[in-house]
Design a protein that fits this description.
- The longest helix is centred in the middle third of the chain and has 41 residues.
- It is built from five helices and no strands.
- The model has no long low-confidence stretch (mean pLDDT about 90).
- It is mostly helical.
- The protein starts with a helix and ends in a 6-residue tail after the last helix.
- It is elongated and about 65 Å long.
C-alpha cells in the first residue's frame, strides 16, 4: 500500500510540475517575439513528453497489478522462497536459484503469460529491473493476445 501512495504522490507532484512548466511556456508564447515563442514551444514540449511517459508507466503498473490479481485468484503467484540476510535483504545465491527455476519454466512454456510474470518477479528479486520490465511487458502482451516482439 505504501508503494501505491508513494507512486500517487510522485505522479501528483510531476503533474503539478508539468502544469507549472506548461504555464511558463504559454506565457513565453504570449510575449509574441520570435525568440520567446521559440522558447515557449520548446518549454511546452517537455511537459508533453513527461505526461506521455507518466501515462505509459501508469498503464504498465495497472496492467501488471491486474495480472498479479488474476494470478493470485488462480493461486499461481510465486511463493517467496528467498533466503534473506539478517538485515532483510535478499540473499543473492537464493535469488539466482529461484531465477534459474523461473527461467527454465519460461523456456518450457514460452507462450504462457504466467511463466513470464513469474520470471519478471525473479528478475526483480535479482535486481535486474530492465529485464524485469521487459518480461512483464511480454506477460502483458501474451495475456492480451497481442503479438510479442522478440
Amino acid at each position: 500500500m505504501r508503494a501505491k501512495i508513494s507512486y500517487a504522490v510522485t505522479a501528483a507532484v510531476l503533474v503539478f510540475y508539468f502544469v507549472l512548466v506548461g504555464s511558463r511556456g504559454v506565457m513565453l508564447i504570449q510575449s509574441g517575439t520570435v525568440l520567446t515563442v521559440t522558447f515557449g514551444i520548446a518549454v511546452l514540449i517537455l511537459p508533453v513528453i513527461g505526461l506521455w511517459f507518466l501515462w505509459q508507466n501508469t498503464r504498465f503498473v495497472r496492467r501488471a497489478n491486474q495480472l498479479a490479481a488474476e494470478l493470485d485468484a488462480e493461486g499461481g503467484l510465486p511463493v517467496d522462497e528467498l533466503r534473506r540476510t539478517p538485515g532483510g535483504r535478499i540473499d543473492r545465491d537464493s535469488a539466482d536459484e529461484v531465477f534459474a527455476k523461473r527461467k527454465a519454466e519460461t523456456e518450457a512454456s514460452p507462450d504462457d503469460w504466467r511463466s513470464w510474470f513469474r520470471l519478471a518477479v525473479a528478475y526483480h528479486d535479482a535486481r535486474d529491473t530492465p529485464r524485469a520490465r521487459k518480461a512483464m511487458q511480454r506477460a502483458i502482451a501474451l495475456h492480451d493476445g497481442r503479438p510479442v516482439r522478440a
